[in-house]
Design brief:
By secondary structure, the protein is α/β, with parallel strands linked by helices. It has a domain of about 270 residues: 3-Layer(aba) Sandwich (Rossmann fold), CATH 3.40.50. It has 17 helices and 17 strands. It has a 10-stranded mixed beta sheet with strand order 3-4-8-5-10-11-14-17-16-15, sandwiched between helices. Strands 9-13-12 form a 3-stranded mixed beta sheet. Strand 1 and strand 2 form a beta hairpin. The radius of gyration is 23 Å and the shape is globular.
Length: about 500
């Protein structure tokens, strides 16, 4: 039979070949065929594995890739990074916007139960969850000297990962590409974006179709972030007017690097007043590490009015706060060396912690085999946030990176949960204003389901600042529906 002048068999080959090529470049063995703890049909394809960054030392970075449930061949590709430094991006995968909601196993040692997440970001985008730098999460090196690193080396390694990843998944090169992350990834995201743009300028192959970036409750600048806490806690009614006025009088707006003992004494009073609060969400109950064996998501002994604080629309309970997003703003950073979260936890600096679900799932040999990760004998025990790495903050303020990227036309969304005390929105609002761009969308509420979901201010050069009402440090965990709403609208270029 002949169709359009060609034999039917040849016509079918011409039609089917592009479809076959869509997944042709995926590496052998990367496709995930089963998810321990989940019973059901996956709404999109999942892939996972390692990309070797340095053949000499055996430095490898682990990724988990979720295709979009909507249109993977056209939807954006988004790289997600968690912070720490030293925290796995399974933080975002397990607790925030990954394809599943996780429920702690009913008996000790049993696997968590997984359910489909109705607000996963893979509803509208292809998601790459990357464990970076090497030594974090499931990433590892054969040479432990690779675990001594910093901002700039991490950005360089992550760029190398992206170039190699897109070589493996060539079919996604035409898709719009964005980089996103939260907390200390407020450093990872701009520095990596700059590496990507520098590579594009130099015509490094493959050329990535980079369009912009997203930062949530992100570490940005020592001065702006460090000076954000006092106005935040006063505005939230956590310290008295009297104490606030004393701090203003003695510190002159310089709370990050006090220049007098009187100022330091007043700041110590502020610290004492807020010491019992959950640093990641001031509305949530605070459970301390020593109580982790008996942690409950909601303490029934609390008054009903308090139990309802921080309620979420998430179908499963929000965990008690887990460490590892960004160091507390008054944490001891010495000679540029950033304390890891386990070190802060041991010192008593980071209460309200619980990472049991992620640890139980990713410590399972069955799970590791299913998701193509090396076993503990190779990577060591899984820690959602590790002190295995020695990390130096060597990139300085991120404001210069933001100015460079946005002035060149790359889009930037800076969002903040407005009840986070770890990286308060007051600092993010202040530094975005300090860039000096013209305001083109005056401060206004944005709406989800006919309710105010937060506030937004838009600047020239595609810089947007946005708050999420009632959310803590990890916004998609507290407000998943609202998070998916602003994420989708922004990526599609629609008004939020």
């Amino acid at each position: 039979m002949v169709k359009n002048g060609l034999p039917l068999q040849l016509t079918l080959v011409c039609f089917l070949l592009p479809l076959l090529q869509l997944t042709k470049s995926a590496p052998d063995g990367a496709l995930i065929t089963r998810i321990p703890g989940f019973n059901g049909t996956l709404p999109s394809k999942h892939y996972a594995g390692y990309v070797t960054i340095d053949e000499t030392t055996g430095k490898k970075l682990y990724y988990y890739f979720v295709e979009s449930e909507r249109n993977p061949s056209k939807d954006p590709v988004v790289l997600w990074l968690n912070g720490g430094p030293g925290c796995s991006s399974f933080d975002g995968f397990v607790y925030e916007h990954g394809p599943f909601n996780f429920e702690l196993g009913k008996t000790s040692g049993s696997l968590p139960t997984l359910h489909l997440n109705p607000y996963t970001w893979s509803k509208v985008t292809n998601m790459i969850y990357l464990d970076s730098p090497s030594g974090v999460g499931l990433s590892y090196s054969d040479n432990e000297t690779d675990y001594v690193t910093g901002d700039l080396k991490t950005a360089s390694d992550s760029h190398t990962f992206l170039l190699k990843w897109f070589e493996l998944y060539k079919e996604f090169l035409p898709n719009p590409f964005f980089i996103a992350g939260e907390s200390y990834a407020g450093v990872y995201v701009p520095t990596l974006s700059y590496e990507v743009v520098t590579g594009i300028d130099a015509a490094v192959k493959p050329v990535l179709n980079f369009k912009g970036y997203i930062v949530g409750n992100g570490v940005t600048d020592d001065e702006f972030d460090g000076n954000a806490l006092v106005p935040f806690v006063h505005g939230m009614g956590l310290i008295s007017d009297t104490l606030y006025e004393e701090v203003i009088a003695e510190c002159h707006g310089n709370y990050y690097d006090p220049d007098s003992s009187t100022c330091e004494n007043n700041l110590a009073k502020v610290d004492a007043e807020i010491a019992g609060l959950n640093i990641y969400d001031i509305l949530e109950p605070c459970y301390h590490a020593k109580e982790s064996s008996t942690i409950m998501h909601v303490n029934p002994k609390l008054p009903l009015s308090f139990r309802k604080l921080g309620e979420t629309e998430r179908p499963l309970p929000v965990r008690t706060r887990m460490f590892g997003r960004a160091w507390p703003l008054r944490a001891p950073v010495r000679d540029g060396i950033v304390p890891t979260w386990p070190q802060l936890l041991q010192s008593g600096s980071v209460p309200c912690t619980d990472d049991r679900v992620a640890t139980a799932w990713l410590s399972s040999p069955e799970v590791r085999k299913a998701i193509h990760a090396e076993q503990e004998a190779v990577t060591g025990p899984f820690e959602l946030c590790t002190d295995k790495i020695t990390f130096t903050h060597d990139s300085g303020s991120m404001i210069k990176y933001h100015k460079n990227l946005t002035s060149r036309g790359y889009r930037a969304l800076i969002f903040s949960g407005d009840h986070d005390m770890c990286v308060p929105f007051t600092g993010s609002e202040a530094w975005t204003r300090s860039v000096g761009y013209k305001i083109i969308d005056e401060w206004r509420p944005w709406i989800v389901n006919e309710q105010v979901a937060g506030y937004i201010q838009g600047y020239d050069y595609n810089l947007t600042f946005l708050t999420i009402k009632g959310a803590g440090h990890t916004v998609p965990e507290y407000k998943p529906q609202e998070a998916l709403a602003f994420y989708t609208r922004w990526l599609e270029g629609k008004s939020i």
